[in-house]
Design brief:
Blueprint lengths: L17 H9 L7 H8 L6 E2 L1 H15 L1 H14 L7 E2 H16 L6 E8 L5 E8 L6 E8 L8 H5 L6 E6 L23 H10 L4 E10 L1 H12 L4 E7 L5 H6 E2 L2 E2 L1 H10 L5 H7 L6 H4 L14 E6 L5 H14 L8 E6 L27 H10 L11 E5 L12 E5 L7 E7 L5 E2 L10 E6 L32 E4 L7 E15 L5 E9 L5 E10 L18 E14 L4 E7 L25 E6 L7 E7 L6
Parallel strand pairs: 5-6, 5-7, 7-8, 8-11, 11-12, 12-13
Antiparallel strand pairs: 1-2, 3-4, 4-6, 9-10, 13-14, 15-16, 15-25, 17-24, 18-23, 19-22, 19-24, 19-25, 20-21, 20-23
Helix pairs in contact: 1-4, 3-4
């Protein structure tokens, strides 16, 4: 195994020439993979890479990551072979890798850092740190905006300076050293304040900039990128977006019309935004002109930039990531349309982190290497012919049974578009609690009733959260509640793959003028543990529109659709599929008092008697996008 052990760990990093430093700097994005690569290709385990083993390594990288990365690796191997004998022994390898890691771990020392204050179009100055690489320039630029303090931004952005990019990291308006109102995303888009676009214009005018600019960031740093794309500034050439919302109403604050209580309140409070921010959110419970100003789905036709969109099946913005990809890929302007990539893994809000909830999925600890940000920016900012634009448009992880060796799923797959081909298949609710693939024949009185008391809500157990426990957690502890209705299939005789958007079509009547439907899709293992896979909620006054709510007529049967977002999973043979229906998911969402009014702690609450209909004429059902298993293991 070619890796530093024993005395090798104490080797000093040797001084190297400027040319060698350039070679090492180009390998910084791959610093964490170098030792693994050496171990993989040290075929005879003699802790030396022969010339043949080196050539095999180069060919592998060329196939997986493109010719440019193969060229970089070849240069690195030449420098590592310090005695020029065509073999690279352990000491040579360790010294070379140490040089790369030194650059990777100390980005500020390999770049000239300067703090600047950039005046926006309204005169408000925003603080930014500029990192310049060695050399004369001008350079392509990697730009990142954050509400979390530019000094704490993901160091991956700064590491681009070591690879020859200028890097600009900016505090958003009102945050830390930037002036202005301390309200989230107030200056990120195309409205009164256009801080992202204004900063792009400033960058273009700097003598160290060649006018080609890319953006990078995740979560809030991804949301600001989506908003920036809606402003379509000249000079923006590429984006690399991780776990981000597309629409601040339906992706962030109100899911299915229900207020995303815990995450919104906790995020605003923990990050010390102006308390006015929460008041503004709560003052706009319907989709209105306030929310339209931050809805990037309305701006797809103006977006003109290629982008990578990375999300997780259990991320709080899972469906938003897919929606942004689809919208830009198919409805974007020239430069955007057909130039998007989507990567969806089995992750929560932490990409590449396992376990996710109660489950640990194999081969899921990173984004597929061929979609790394270095390749993306090298192509679109430097014109590198590395083939990244030819990679499949979609990479998605199909989850599976993690307890059975060889079970289908638990692998990455690739597609040219999203959604992939699937047959929307109803799984019907029955009054005796079954989830059946044959349509019910029961009469019109077939129904399942439950009572929802807003003073005793069903608790949140995992799911697509940020500040609460996340991911596919076992739901057993809520499944015995009287206000939770279960519909469970028989044990599967063959595996079933579900890949795409899951919805519940429910015929429901309530004794109240308003209620919620919370639907959770679960994978029930043979031992009875029931893992949350996808979920949705609908506040029924929004059953027809998020713009104009309409109260229920008590006891009138309504047909409603609950969006449970998208997933990809193979339910294995012997497992059961379960739909869980109730009227709360607290504190993930606020509670519905049943009065038609927003919840207040001191206001009136109404106990809600709800009925789910399961008849031939009113067949409530889970709609599953089922993919043919032919040819899949």
């Amino acid at each position: 195994m070619l890796a530093c052990q024993g005395n090798c760990a104490a080797l000093d990093v040797e001084q190297s020439s400027d040319k060698q430093n350039t070679v090492f700097a180009e390998m910084v994005p791959a610093a964490k993979q170098l030792d693994k690569l050496a171990q993989q290709f040290d075929a005879d385990h003699d802790r030396t890479l022969s010339s043949q083993e080196q050539q095999a390594m180069i060919a592998f990288v060329a196939e997986k990551n493109g010719e440019q990365w193969a060229d970089r690796l070849q240069k690195f191997l030449r420098v590592a072979d310090s005695n020029h004998d065509s073999d690279i022994d352990l000491i040579e390898w360790t010294r070379a890798v140490a040089q790369v890691r030194q650059l990777a771990s100390q980005p500020a020392k390999s770049a000239k850092a300067q703090t600047v204050r950039i005046a926006m179009s309204d005169g408000i100055p925003l603080a930014a740190d500029v990192y310049l690489p060695e050399g004369e320039g001008p350079f392509p630029v990697v730009f990142s905006r954050t509400p979390y303090s530019r000094g704490k931004v993901n160091e991956g952005a700064v590491h681009f300076a070591a690879a020859g990019y200028a890097v600009v990291v900016q505090d958003m308006r009102g945050r830390f050293d930037s002036e202005g109102e301390n309200l989230p995303f107030i200056g990120c888009g195309w409205n009164e304040h256009r801080d992202g676009a204004d900063t792009i214009e400033w960058i273009k005018k700097q003598k160290w900039s060649n006018g080609k600019i890319a953006t990078i960031g995740g979560s809030a740093g991804g949301i600001t990128q989506n908003l920036l794309a809606g402003a379509a500034p000249d000079g923006l050439k590429a984006q690399y977006i991780t776990v981000a919302a597309a629409d601040l109403y339906s992706d962030v604050s109100f899911i299915g019309g229900a207020f995303r209580k815990a995450d919104v309140e906790n995020w605003l409070t923990n990050n010390k935004f102006d308390p006015l921010a929460l008041k503004i959110n709560l003052a706009h419970p319907n989709y209105d002109d306030y929310w339209r100003k931050s809805d990037t789905t309305l701006k797809f036709s103006q977006m003109n930039v290629p982008a990578v969109h990375i999300g997780g099946w259990f991320d709080m913005f899972a469906q938003a990531t897919i929606n942004e990809f689809v919208g830009r890929q198919h409805s974007g302007a020239d430069g955007s349309r057909g130039a998007q990539k989507l990567i969806m893994g089995p992750w929560t809000h932490g990409i590449g982190k396992m376990p996710a909830g109660d489950l640990t999925f194999p081969k899921a600890n990173k984004v597929p290497e061929q979609y790394n940000s270095g390749r993306w920016f090298d192509h679109y900012l430097r014109g590198a012919d590395n083939g990244v634009e030819k990679e499949p448009a979609v990479a998605y992880y199909v989850m599976g049974d993690i307890s059975t060796p060889g079970a289908p799923g638990n692998e990455w797959r690739y597609a040219d578009d999203w959604p992939i081909a699937a047959k929307e298949t109803p799984a019907y609710f029955t009054r005796d609690g079954q989830l059946a693939f044959s349509k019910p024949t029961a009469g019109s009185d077939a129904q399942v009733k439950y009572i929802f008391d807003p003073m005793n809500p069903c608790p949140t157990v995992g799911g697509n959260n940020l500040t609460l426990a996340r991911g596919p957690m076992n739901q057993n502890k809520i499944e015995t509640r009287g206000d939770v209705v279960l519909f469970t299939s028989a044990p599967l005789t063959e595996p079933i793959e579900v890949t795409g958007r899951v919805k519940a079509k429910v015929f429901v009547a309530s004794s109240a003028v308003d209620t919620d439907l919370s639907v959770r899709l679960c994978d029930v293992y043979p031992d009875g543990k029931s893992y949350l896979i996808a979920e949705g909620i609908l506040r029924l006054r929004h059953r027809k529109s998020f713009e104009k709510p309409e109260l229920l007529t008590p006891r009138k049967i309504e047909e409603v659709t609950v969006d449970c977002w998208s997933t990809s999973i193979v339910f294995n043979k012997g497992h059961r599929i379960r739909a869980t229906v109730t009227s709360s998911n607290f504190p993930r969402f606020d509670l519905n008092p049943g009065t038609g009014q927003p919840w207040t702690d001191s206001g009136p609450k109404v106990t809600q008697m709800n009925a789910i209909y399961c008849s031939a004429l009113q067949p409530s059902q889970l709609v599953l996008p089922i993919v043919a298993m032919t040819g899949k293991r």
